[in-house]
Design brief:
16 helices, eight-stranded mixed β-sheet, two-stranded antiparallel ribbon, alpha/beta
């Protein structure tokens, strides 16, 4: 049994706390909102963000960050990506040397273009950092439906420790040394899911969504390789796997927000209606910034940014994608001879 604290009481943090409790660990959930902690104590359920998933009486609940962080075997950082830096900074005074912190949020900081694990390393330099990601909607994890994720870390030992803590007969965890690839796949797929949702909102069909998923993973892969990640990661669970579920699932807040935008709502109106953090909106600017920094062509990412932040009509963005210059699908696939025969 391990002592584990989940820092963040949103849908994903609550679902993972349920997994950890099921695995027999001593679990604490922290929230910055005292009223959220009081609600969880009273209801033993996050009625707004994860209805139907009951928390056992064995799970501790606290609004004290010091109590949540001190003397724990593992810290699971589950706050929305926009709060990762501030929360990690607040944790720093209470984190012991060598403490393992596993990030489970997905995003890229738009001002610095840093992935979240690098932000945590910067804010808590005495900690060891790992990531856990994959095609894993909180609603299904909370219901104990079969799910697979990947634990990434700089060392095999840390990745296997996270694997052992989380894995059970319905929550399968693989390991990987490619933390950068895992985080890029998890963050950038949210932007592509916004585009898929916009297409749904316009009434387009499965052909359109298949094109967005396939060309979207090509864009993510080009950037990941340019940044030093491994294409095998992008073609795996945390890349194409996470992209498929986020573009297609009724649980996807990014797809839902995109759908509302496709139906004519503004970005602000869509985010308000979704009532949860839409990570793709925050990652979109960073993704475009990375494409420019590394000189990688990312036309879907570009058009999503123009729709979100420059008032470009969604139909016009789709038309521009369809009417781009003729080109080969993959420049690495060559004709057998110069004549193309």
């Amino acid at each position: 049994m391990a002592k584990v604290s989940v820092i963040g009481a949103g849908s994903w943090g609550t679902a993972l706390a349920s997994v950890l409790d099921f695995n027999g660990h001593e679990v604490t959930i922290w929230s910055v909102l005292e009223e959220e902690i009081e609600m969880l104590k009273e209801k033993r359920e996050h009625v707004a963000k994860l209805p139907g998933v009951k928390l056992s009486n064995m799970i501790n609940l606290t609004a004290s960050l010091e109590d949540a962080v001190r003397n724990k075997d593992l810290l699971v950082l589950a706050v929305p990506s926009v709060f990762t830096r501030s929360t990690a900074g607040n944790m720093r005074p209470f984190v012991k040397d060598g403490q393992l912190v596993v990030n489970v949020a997905k995003g890229i900081e738009d001002k610095t273009l840093m992935v979240l694990s690098d932000i945590i390393k910067e804010e808590i330099p005495q900690a060891r950092v790992a990531v856990l990601s994959g095609p894993s909607h909180a609603e299904e994890v909370g219901q104990k439906l079969p799910t697979t994720c990947v634990a990434g870390a700089d060392t095999r030992e840390a990745a296997e420790y996270v694997q052992n803590i989380f894995m059970n007969d319905v929550f399968r965890v693989y390991t990987s040394p490619d933390m950068l690839g895992i985080e890029l796949g998890g963050a950038l797929k949210n932007v592509i899911a916004l585009a898929a949702g916009m297409a749904d909102g316009l009434g387009y069909g499965d052909n359109t969504k298949a094109a967005l998923i396939t060309r979207g993973i090509a864009e993510i892969g080009r950037l990941a390789l340019a940044m030093g990640a491994k294409y095998e990661t992008i073609s795996g669970l945390t890349g194409i796997g996470d992209l498929i579920v986020t573009c297609a699932s009724r649980h996807s807040r990014n797809r839902k927000a995109g759908m509302l935008i496709g139906q004519g709502k503004t970005m602000e109106e869509a985010m308000k209606e979704v009532q949860m953090v839409v990570e793709g909106v925050y990652s979109a600017k960073a993704a475009w910034g990375l494409s420019e920094k590394y000189q990688v062509s990312m036309p879907i990412i570009e058009q999503v940014n123009l729709v979100l932040f420059h008032e470009k009509p969604v139909k016009e963005a789709v038309q521009e994608l369809m009417l781009r210059d003729r080109k080969a699908e993959n420049d690495l696939v060559r004709w057998e001879n110069a004549l193309g025969l």
